[in-house]
Amino acid sequence: MKIVTYNVNGIKARLPRLLEYLTEQQPDIVCLQELKTTDETFPEREIRDIGYGGVWHGQKGFNGVAVLARGADPVERHRGLGGDPEDEQSRYLEAEVDGLVVASIYLPNGNPRPGPKFDYKLRWMERLANHARALLVEEKPVVLAGDYNVIPNDDDAYSVRALAEDALMQPESRAAYRRLLAQGWTDALRTRHPRGAVWTFWDYQAQAWARDAGFRIDHLLLSPQAADRMLGAGVDKEYRGRDKASDHAPTWVRLR
C-alpha cells in the first residue's frame, strides 16, 4: 500500500499534474493539502473518473485538505482539529480506509515571526499533539501525513543560514515536532534516510529547483502499528520538475 502526502498548491491550477500523478503512480491513498478551493468547487468528477474516491475539507482561496483512495471511498472520522472552537481554517481531515486511519494535515506556516501567526502555529501544534495522543490510545495503524511546515533538523535544509529566521526552523517549532515524535510516532522518511538531505519542497523563486535548493517539510508519521508494516519511504521528486508543477513533490511511505 502506497500512501502519499502531496501539497498541490491550488488544486484547480495543478489538476492536470495531480491527475497525471494518480494515473502514472496509482498510489492507494493520497493526502492533499493547500486545495485553495471550496467544498462545492472541488473537482470530484475528474478525480472519480480516474478511479479515486475522496473526502475533502475546503476553504475559498486558502488552505484546504483532502484524502483520496484508489477504488474506495474514505470514511470520514474528523473534520477540523479540536481545541479551539473559533478556528475556522481548513487544515485537518481524518478518514479511515480499509482499517487504516489517515489524516491530511496542513500545519500553519507561522511567518512572520514573532507575532500572532507564529503563536497560532505553536498553539495548533499543541492541539495536534493532544489529538495524536488520543489516536495512539486506539492502537490502530495510523498515518499522520501532510505539510507540517517544520524543518526538523539542520540537514533537512539546503542552507541553515538562509532559513535561520524562518518560522519553519525555529527552536520552538522543532521542539513541538520532537514532542509529537516522542509520543511514539515514527518519521517514515527520516527513518529510511537518516542522514537527511532529502527535500520535499523547492521554492519557485531564486532558481531553487534548478539549484536543488530545497528542504523537507512534508512528513508521514506512523503509529507503532503502522511502523511495524513499513516497507519503504521516499519522494517522487521528478514530478516537481514538470510544467506548472506544485512547489512540493509527492512524498510517500509503503506499508504491508
From TrEMBL:
Residue positions binding Mg(2+): 7, 34, 147, 149, 247-248
Q: Where is this site: Interaction with DNA substrate?
A: 248
Pfam families cross-referenced by the UniProt entry: Exo_endo_phos
Q: Which domain of life is it from?
A: Bacteria
A GO MF term: double-stranded DNA 3'-5' DNA exonuclease activity
Show the InterPro entries listed in the entry: AP_endonuc_1, AP_endonuclease_F1_BS, Endo/exonu/phosph_ase_sf, Endo/exonuclease/phosphatase, ExoIII-like
Q: Which SUPFAM superfamilies match?
A: DNase I-like
Q: Where is this site: Transition state stabilizer?
A: 149
Query: Which keywords fit this entry according to its UniProt record?
Result: Hydrolase, Magnesium, Manganese, Metal-binding
Q: How is the cofactor bound?
A: Probably binds two magnesium or manganese ions per subunit.
Site described as Important for catalytic activity, located at 218
Q: Report the cofactors.
A: Mg(2+); Mn(2+)
Q: Which residues catalyse the reaction?
A: 106, 147, 248
An example GO biological process term is: DNA repair
Q: Where is the Endonuclease/exonuclease/phosphatase domain?
A: 4-248
Tell me its family. Belongs to the DNA repair enzymes AP/ExoA family.
Name of the featured protein: Exodeoxyribonuclease III
Q: Which organism is it from?
A: Sphingomonas lenta
